[in-house]
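Quick note —
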Amino acid sequence: MADDDEKAKGGSYKPVVIGCLVSVVLTIVFNYGIYVGTHEEIDSRATTGQPAGTDAKSSFSFAAVVDKVDPSVVSIYTFAHDGPQGINGGATQSSGAGLIIRSDGYILTSAHFVQANSTVLVGLHDKRKLNAKLIGKDPFTDLAVLKVEANDLPIATFGDSAKIRPGDWAIAIGSPLGFDHTVTLGVVSAINRSLGDLNNHVEVIQTDAAINFGSLGGPLINSQGEVIGLNVAVRNYAQNIAFAVPIKVARDIAGKIIELGGNIPRPYLGIYMQDVSAAMAKQLGLPDVDGVMVKEVVANGPCQKAGLFKNDLIRKVDGVKVATTKEVRAVIGERKPGAVIVFSVNRKSEEEDRKVIVGEYPNI
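Predicted structure written out below.
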């Protein structure tokens, strides 16, 4: 009888235990389903490029970012007449882009395709086409300022180009081959690049956003719709290697051009330089690498007139030791045209000083 009572008591616990086990299993399965479903959604967003926190049914686009800047971007057409009456009565044409920097009609662009004797036409975002006047250009940085007679023009928001990093989004707007307001997307490939096309006078931003020649002069913007640079150069025979002057530098130059009402007087030496490597020093028989090599001397330039030659090793400039081209430019940048500076050079293991009268950078 006692055995029967114990069996009866044990039997009453079995349904409870089984129910608890089933409940635990169902809870684990349910939570695992939520976990898997959530992570499948996250993984899907990662592969499609959709930012986290957006509706899975929506698609991400940079259209709103571009809309912030596009109204301030202009197309620029220049007509350089061939001779007093032109060849066959015609004119050569080039095109580029520009950026409105003041609401009263001042436009920043690239300098190399805008000539002083050219007729310049500017196409605004609202389809108006206006004649433009060249205020001034700075070939030192390949920047120029134009002026159209208009008011209340839209201005873009300017970003802090000092805060950009390689890998940041980069968006270019321009007019390649006359296709105005073309948008291309890439990233900031590198910063603080020295570019021979600008004679290494300014450190530029490198981007892989597709920029063709008609896009030069247009803005480079970030993912917040802020202008971070002005596109000035592309690398020939390469794909998606382009360069922009940081917007802080570009705006400073534009301000000086407007203030002076024309070109900025720049110091000019008439030499091309390069840093010295250990291999170069050994090949040329130099005693060491302390100095900057004269790579080329421009005919009739200030340095040629002072007696500097190719392969001279510049040790000091006005008594200041220099080891890189950047250091030489820093010293020269503080001098004005007409100033006299002393180059201490090593030539065939002999040290000598050369006095150079600083020229003015040619407006070409």
